[in-house]
Prior knowledge:
Order of helices and strands: EEEEEHEEHEHHHHEHEHEEHH
Number of helices: 10
Radius of gyration: 20 Å
CATH topology of the largest domain: Rossmann fold
Largest sheet: 6 strands, mixed
Strand order of the largest sheet: 8-9-10-5-11-12
Helix content: 25-40%
Distance between the termini: 46 Å
CATH architecture of the largest domain: 3-Layer(aba) Sandwich
Number of strands: 12
Strand content: 15-25%
Low-confidence stretches: none
Shape: globular
Mean pLDDT: 90
Amino acid sequence: MFSKLVNVPSGAMIPDRDIDKSPILECINLGITFGGLKAVENFNLTIGRTEIAGLIGPNGAGKTTVFNLLTKVYQPTKGTILLDGTDTHGMNTIQVNRAGIARTFQNIRLFSNLSVEDNVKAGMDNAMKYNMWEGIFRLPRYHKEEKIAHDRALELLSIFDMQDLASAKSGSLPYGAQRRLEIVRALATNPSLLLLDEPAAGMNPSETAELMENIRKIRDTFQIAVLLIEHDMKLVMNICEGICVLNFGHVIAKGSPEEIQANPAVIEAYLGKKKEA
């Protein structure tokens, strides 16, 4: 399900299949300053409700800083973030996750001593409907909710064919499987926007190709949007519908994969300016 980009009234572009729905994310003149350093400035981005979008740029461009702004690891110095039309100003990390944003990280952050299933269930904490005393005394509602969580964890793990690893210790999994588990745990929070920070890092070509298909499967199954940071340009160009390019904290280009590949500013940012003879 790959759609062409079309204009919306704000002047942004989203996939045509999302044109009759409000965007899931709108960043308006977003920025953050650390001391005198403007790490991100005038960042504008709109993402359709079921779009797979890419955020790319050279090392140090500000990509992970944008993710940290979206998830409120950092509070913006200026600008607005609208999540499904709601201003996230004043929200903290937990609140913005409950509102619908989930993420993975460049460096894997699993609970390595817990089982695969328990890592997934950790993402369901907000959905558990039993209280502390019901948990301590193992009352009926505790068992009912734990059964629901168990079934849901196996269902999510099956996306990556990992259900048979449910009882394995997460720290014992191969690197690629740990990457996949982190995505599953993020999905357990029931997001409307999934942020993937370099999901293909450390994966071999066959694992990357499988990841590409699974990202599409996640979007189609859950009808959610995905925004990914990635240095594997083959993955980006083959899976992303809209791409935003950052350099030194500024957006230098936005458009389809074809437009981005042919953009002189993008080529210069990655390869440097060609010297005149």
